[in-house]
Design brief:
Pfam families: Pkinase
CATH topology: Transferase(Phosphotransferase), domain 1
Distance between the termini: 41 Å
Helix content: 25-40%
Structural class: alpha+beta
Shape: globular
InterPro entries: Kinase-like_dom_sf, Prot_kinase_dom, Ser/Thr_Kinases-Pseudokinases
Order of helices and strands: EEEEEHEEEHHEEEE
GO molecular function: ATP binding; protein serine/threonine kinase activity
Number of helices: 3
Largest sheet: 5 strands, antiparallel
CATH architecture: Orthogonal Bundle
CATH superfamily: Transferase(Phosphotransferase) domain 1
Number of strands: 12
CATH class: Mainly Alpha
Protein name: Protein kinase domain-containing protein
Number of domains: 1
Keywords: ATP-binding, Kinase, Nucleotide-binding, Transferase
């Protein structure tokens, strides 16, 4: 696969896509690793102004998120996702079980009350940790709240993160 002009040592297809958002796509790289990459439109066809703008916004968003992850990797927290590696074209991270959004499905009441309470405490602890470093997540929601294999919260997706205040 070629990602933003760089040849990667593996092949990714739409079958490997775990999720996508307004500025990025997340791919599975095997069973343990995920890659978050910006959405870039190929310039081999005429692009609209909107596509050019979206590509630039996507690259800038990933760049900002990498800076946040650098800070968070230096100051880890058990309920904040840590990255494995990042390069100009993306962020490699541990692959989680799923998001709270996917786990809940259409029936949030199916999650036992003690587990929901633990998740709220873990999420509050992660948000407090961000605040101690002068940051506000800016987009805490079930889709950005991941679950590890032990059903613990891992707050992720820091492209909307801003300085507090």
């Amino acid at each position: 696969m070629v990602l933003n002009g760089h040849k990667l040592p593996f092949r990714l297809t739409t079958a490997d896509m775990l999720d996508s958002g307004s500025v990025s796509i997340v791919f599975a790289i095997g069973e343990r690793i995920a890659l978050k990459a910006p959405i870039i439109y190929k310039a081999n066809i005429p692009l609209t102004e909107e596509q050019i703008e979206q590509s630039a916004e996507s690259v800038a968003s990933i760049r900002r998120e990498k800076c946040i992850y650098d800070l968070l990797n230096d100051h880890p927290h058990p309920n904040i996702l840590q990255t494995i590696f990042h390069c100009p074209d993306g962020i490699f991270m541990p692959r989680m079980l799923c998001s709270v959004f996917h786990w809940m499905g259409n029936d949030p009441n199916s999650i036992p009350a003690p587990l929901r309470l633990r998740w709220v405490k873990e999420l509050a602890s992660a948000a407090e940790h961000l605040e101690t470093h002068g940051l506000v997540h800016g987009d805490i929601r079930p889709a950005n709240t991941l679950l590890d294999k032990n059903m613990h919260i891992k707050l992720a997706d820091f492209d909307s993160c801003e300085a507090a205040g």
